[in-house]
Write a structure and sequence with these properties.
- Helix 1 packs parallel to helix 7 and helix 4 packs across helix 5.
- The protein is α/β, with parallel strands linked by helices and 408 residues long.
- Helix content is 38%, strand content 19%.
- The longest helix has 26 residues.
- A 7-stranded mixed beta sheet has the order 9-8-15-16-17-14-18.
- It binds flavin-adenine dinucleotide (FAD) and uridine-5'-diphosphate.
- Flavin-adenine dinucleotide (FAD) binds next to helix 1, helix 15 and helix 16.
Length: 408
């Protein structure tokens, strides 16, 4: 039996940020169990066979408005500023995207102004004061024509649901601008870890020293009978933890199809890519309508890696099932209602302990405190910075509990 202070499930942003704080601030002895063969969760990146640094699970564009989160992560990485710029491809041509004055000019086929675009939008948008779903949030900003061109098809492909059956927050993430700002994201800090995400996570793990034991390719359920712990931190899927007893939460999955190119193979692409060593003209091109995939990502545009080869990755949305990863929680009223029932169980340490005991855990010194954390365990369409912030906040709650107990 190994005596731990905390057993942590998952080595993504949520699990590793929590582990780092617990080890370095409270001197906790932690074990992180990760079922995959690598750290970093969905933010994992690696050099592929062509020597190109790629994001293994889709493009991960770091951004934040929070100085606290930026400062925290800056202990483990330097940053390379990136202006995330993408394009949309439909009607046989590339469009500036998200919708901005350049897109409007492409649509008109002539130069225009912010005033003209605003007047056009005022005539075309459908007045909805409080948009309730993803269709309403877009048509209330840009009207049906742009909604149908850029959003409807993409969203149905991505989510296998109509935009009207998805929370407004899904399409509401995408900015609409009447100036020439064509950056994909809104946040004021936009950058990638200079040496990649995996190197950043390596440093987080190394900084914990002997207090952290990391077990890769290990489902936490294998470990439960062999450890004791005072805290249980879970960053996997909430319904899976409770063995789907209230029903399965819906997730959307993806299939990633990478393809690499040598300089010779890239030569004919030069007129399209616009520069040598690249396959397409931007780090991401969205395909809202005519293709089965939603986007093609060429992350080398963003990482700035100097490498004569390049790799593109096509993303095909797919149902979640055996052999697939639950990449996206589906933000919609029905799934949120089911999640809330699970969340009530998760908030009760006695219920969580019973579930753990059924899987072989024993608690000689009382039931552990439990924390459900991260994108899957809170069933939220959260970005990396939000998950980091959530881990820091949950850590602070543990810290104040521990400190107050010291004085008892
Ligand atoms: P995860 O990274 O999913 O980590 C959870 C870990 O728990 C996983 O590694 C999993 O293997 C492990 N686990 C689960 N169950 C078990 C078990 N039983 N035993 C052991 N281990 C287990 N965010 C951004 O900020 N910018 C982006 O551009 C962006 N793009 C994205 C693109 C895609 C395609 C996807 C899917 C996500 C994107 N995100 C992006 C979101 C980002 O991936 C998440 O916010 C972040 O990775 C969440 O971290 P996490 O630790 O909560 O979850
Ligand atoms: N979206 C769309 N068309 C686009 C880009 C995005 O309809 O060209 C919608 C789609 O529903 C998508 C959501 O906006 O799931 C959020 O897009 P984002 O690029 O942020 O998705 P992620 O990177 O999280 O997959």
């Amino acid at each position: 039996m190994t005596n731990l202070d905390a057993l942590i499930v998952g080595a993504g942003f949520a699990g590793l940020v929590m582990a780092e704080r617990l080890c370095n601030k409270l001197g906790f002895r932690c074990l992180v169990a990760e079922k995959r063969s690598h750290i970093g969760g969905n933010a994992y990146d690696f050099q592929d066979r062509a020597g190109v640094l790629i994001h293994a699970y889709g493009p991960h564009y770091f951004r934040t408005n929070s100085p606290r989160i930026r400062e925290y992560l800056s202990q483990f990485t330097a940053w390379q500023p990136v202006e995330y710029k993408i394009l949309s491809y439909t009607d046989g041509r590339y469009w500036s995207f998200p919708i901005n004055l350049n897109t409007f000019e492409q649509f008109l086929g002539r130069p225009s102004t912010t005033e003209e675009m605003e007047a056009w939008l005022a005539n075309n948008r459908i007045p909805i004061s409080d948009p309730k779903n993803s269709e309403e949030v877009i048509i209330s900003q840009v009207g049906r024509l742009f909604y149908e061109k850029f959003f409807e098809g993409y969203t149905i492909k991505q989510w296998k649901r109509h935009p009207r059956d998805l929370d407004a927050s899904v399409c509401g993430r995408i900015p609409v601008r009447t100036n020439r700002d064509d950056r994909y994201l809104r946040e004021n800090f936009q950058a990638l870890p200079s040496d990649g995400y995996t190197r950043m996570f390596d440093r987080i793990v190394a900084g914990c020293g002997k207090l952290l034991e990391l077990k890769l390719q290990t489902d936490y359920r294998e470990i439960l009978p062999h450890v004791t712990f005072r805290y249980f931190v879970y960053t996997g899927a909430m319904d899976e933890f409770f063995e789907n007893r209230l029903g399965r939460l819906p997730y959307r999955s993806l299939r990633f199809e990478p393809e690499s190119f040598s300089p010779r193979e890239l030569e004919p692409r030069l007129p399209i890519a616009g520069k040598r060593g690249f396959w397409q003209p931007a780090m991401q091109v969205n395909y809202p309508n005519d293709e089965e995939f939603t986007r093609i990502v060429e992350i080398k545009h963003a990482t700035g890696q100097v490498c004569e080869n390049t790799t593109i990755v096509r993303e095909y949305p797919q149902d979640y099932g055996p052999g697939c990863e639950p990449y996206y929680p589906i933000p919609a009223p029905d799934s949120t209602a089911l999640y809330k029932k699970y969340a009530e169980w998760a908030a009760d340490c006695a219920i969580v302990a019973r579930q753990l005991a059924a899987m072989g855990a024993c608690f000689p010194s009382g039931i552990p405190n439990s924390v459900f954390l991260g994108r899957l365990a809170t069933y939220r369409y959260y970005n990396m910075d939000q998950v980091t912030g959530m881990a820091l906040t949950e850590f602070e709650k543990i810290e104040s509990r521990e400190r107050s107990q010291q004085f008892l």
